[in-house]
């Protein structure tokens, strides 16, 4: 897994960029009226069994609570074991 990257936590990070154990979503708020407009945010989902497509529609900006203006970029896991199940669909042709 070449794209896995481990990063250290910064204790001075703002609260909207704090991770917790389990699944964490990383995104950017695109609400021009939000106080953290265009800044990276982290949304913590914790532990459990998740259907990512369902969870993506539930996450929102921690400041303005907007879900339609949140652009998700990645997910991260903290102290978590994970696996992914899915269905491979191939293009016709």
Question: How would you describe the overall organization of this protein?
Answer:
The mean pLDDT is 85. It is built from one helix and three strands, in the order ββαβ. The chain is globular. Helices cover 5% and strands 26% of the residues. It has a three-stranded antiparallel beta sheet with strand order 2-1-3, with no helix packed on it. By secondary structure, it is mostly beta strands.
Contiguous low-pLDDT stretches (5 residues minimum) are none
The strand order across the widest sheet is 2-1-3
- Strand-and-helix sequence, N→C? EEHE
Structural class: mainly beta
The number of strands is 3
Percentage of residues in DSSP E strands: 25-35%
Radius of gyration: 15 Å
Distance between the termini: 29 Å
Count up the helices. 1
Summarize the structure.
With 93 residues, the chain is mainly beta. The chain contains one helix and three strands.
What descriptive keywords fit this protein?
93 residues, mainly beta, 3-stranded antiparallel sheet, 1 helix
SSE order and pairing:
Blueprint: E1 22-29, E2 40-46, H1 52-56, E3 70-78
Antiparallel strand pairs: 1-2, 1-3
């Amino acid at each position: 897994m070449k794209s896995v990257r481990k990063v250290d936590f910064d204790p001075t990070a703002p609260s909207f960029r704090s991770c917790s154990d389990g699944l964490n979503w990383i995104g950017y708020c695109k609400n021009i009226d939000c106080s953290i407009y265009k800044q990276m945010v982290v949304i913590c989902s914790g532990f459990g069994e998740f259907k990512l497509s369902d969870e993506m529609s539930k996450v929102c900006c921690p400041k303005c609570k907007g879900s339609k203006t949140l652009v998700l970029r990645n997910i991260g896991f903290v102290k978590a074991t994970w696996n992914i199940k899915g269905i491979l669909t191939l293009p016709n042709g």
